[in-house]
Amino acid sequence: MGKNIVIWASQKQKLVTLSSCEAEYVTAASAACQGIWLSRLIGDLLGTKEVQVKLLMDNMSAIALSKNPMHHERSKHIDMKYHFLRECIEEGTVNVDHVGTAEQLADIFTKALGRVRFVELRKKLGVIDLV
Q1: How far apart are CA 109 and CA 81, in angstroms?
Q2: Which of 109, 99, 101 lies closest to 7 in space, CA to CA?
Q3: Does the pLDDT of residue 10 top 90, yes or no?
Q4: Cα–Cα distance measured from residue 92 to residue 39, given in angstroms and rounded to the nearest whole number
Q5: What is the DSSP letter of 97?
């Protein structure tokens, strides 16, 4: 809540993607589902209305694909269930925005980082070193 991590998961991808754009798109659709669920849960617990989910992505192609409601050659092979993200954006339930690779906090969970970058991202996440 606030600036703290609430949910984090790591798992082997369930499908093989043909490009990094497709991989980001599929992952964003999954993140949107988790975000909407969490927004509704918090709304129910606090007695407030659900808030818009904000997804930060560093792949401009995946962002363009998620905001384009038209189907075209490059996306026709993507399973329909992942186009749920497009519906959420059209409805205003989810907002997708670009974040530069340098500001991508999720890198601490997904990449091998040098000590300096690791400590920098850890600090931005609000995790403190107790030692």
Answers
A1: 26
A2: 109
A3: no
A4: 13
A5: E
